[in-house]
Design brief:
- This is AB hydrolase-1 domain-containing protein.
- It comes from Ceriporiopsis subvermispora (strain B).
- With 350 residues, the protein is α/β, with parallel strands linked by helices.
- It has a single domain, classed as Rossmann fold.
- It is built from 14 helices and 14 strands.
- The strands form 3 sheets. The chain has a 9-stranded mixed β-sheet with strand order 1-2-3-7-4-8-9-13-14, sandwiched between helices. A 3-stranded antiparallel β-sheet has the order 10-12-11.
- Strand 1 and strand 2 form a beta hairpin.
- The radius of gyration is 20 Å and the shape is globular.
- 42% of the residues are buried.
């Protein structure tokens, strides 16, 4: 299934993705495909970007950043003045209980426990492998829990199958090494976060009332206006309460809380194991916000120290929700990383 539209410097299509091995029959997964407008497409040698979002977000959260990245150009061979696009296409994969996917899956989500990130990983892995088989040069770019999901997709591949990515970019990941988890400090923070979620309002009579409430509260009050508008369109859904039409969050509070206790947080511990186990020459780049807020600096330090990172960048005027708070700066750092990757000779993955 695909629905197309045109916007800015790209066209988009909503595509339903396979999820072979899912434990929940009927659960559907969707992605948004972004391609440069006609006449501005990259050759098959351009990079294909795969984006994943944070908890409580949606697949459109990367849209302003994707728009900027489609403007990237590199010289073609050694010809002066002749430049080609760096990006071939981009895909943003949505967690099945988030964004517009939560509306499509509503009836199923009402009947099953909150989704583990592992349900999303099934989709991500299958997508990444299929792109590799199609000859794409895939770069995984994940924010927070989405970063962990990409790392988890690098294991449990078919025997002999290569890692399907040419590089991975972790944007404000929510990871830490097992020794840091063992201290108990992370769990204390997660417990406090769960209490805060319980106290947070999640039901409004209409979108205008939701806008008034969210715009005055953390974290939404810190967001770039474009990101806030995207959340108002895709982060909320219609519902009813006692027969009265209402508006609520697309990602339920139950789903958000469950993410912070997913199988004893083993998926996120395992994600850091996966990161440390990647080949030494595999490109991993980190982008963090300069402001310490939700994710503490000692957590990032443990991740950076678990292997040799290709590069580490700090984005000013931003914290953990760096893509929502300063998307233009994130675009700049991502652009530099992607141009460096695109400008280097590539090793065959097949």
């Amino acid at each position: 299934m695909a629905h197309s539209s045109s916007s800015r410097n790209f066209t988009t299509a909503i595509v339903e993705l396979p999820s072979p091995g899912s434990n929940i029959p009927g659960l559907r997964a969707f992605a948004k495909r972004y391609t440069p407008l006609k006449g501005d497409s990259a050759s098959n040698s351009g990079l294909t970007l795969m984006f994943t979002h944070c908890v409580g977000s949606h697949k459109e959260a990367w849209e302003p950043i994707i728009s900027s990245l489609f403007n990237l150009r590199l010289p073609k061979d050694s010809l002066v003045g002749d430049k080609v696009p760096v990006i071939r296409e981009a895909w943003s994969l949505e967690w099945q209980g988030h964004g517009d996917s939560s509306v499509v899956n509503h009836d199923i989500l009402e009947r099953v426990p909150p989704l583990s990130v592992l349900e999303w990983v099934i989709v991500i892995r299958h997508f990444a492998v299929s792109k590799l088989q199609e000859g794409h040069h895939l770069i995984g770019i994940g924010h927070s829990a989405g970063a962990g999901a990409i790392l988890l997709s690098t294991v449990h591949l078919s025997t002999g199958s290569p890692i399907p990515y040419h590089g991975i970019i972790l944007v404000e990941d929510c990871l830490a090494t097992r020794p840091v988890w063992a201290t108990g400090r992370i769990q204390d923070d997660l417990d406090a976060m769960t209490v805060a979620i319980d106290r947070r309002r999640d039901l409004w009579p209409d979108r205008q009332k939701a806008r008034e409430y969210l715009s005055k509260r953390f974290p939404w009050m810190l967001w770039d206006a474009r990101m806030f508008e995207l959340f108002m369109r895709h982060g909320l859904r219609d519902t009813s309460h006692s027969g009265t039409p209402m508006v609520t969050l697309s990602c339920t509070k139950a789903q958000e809380k469950a993410t912070y206790a997913d199988n004893g947080n083993e998926p996120y511990k395992k994600a850091t194991d996966c990161l440390a186990a990647l080949p030494p020459d595999f490109e991993v780049h980190c982008i963090y916000g300069e402001r310490e807020d939700i994710i503490k600096e000692y957590l990032h330090a443990s991740v950076i120290g678990c292997r040799k990172m290709t590069s580490v960048h700090r984005v000013p005027n931003a914290g953990h929700q760096v893509i929502q708070e300063n998307p233009d700066a994130v675009s700049l750092y991502l652009g530099n990383v992607l141009c460096n990757i695109a400008g280097r000779p590539r090793k065959s993955k097949l």
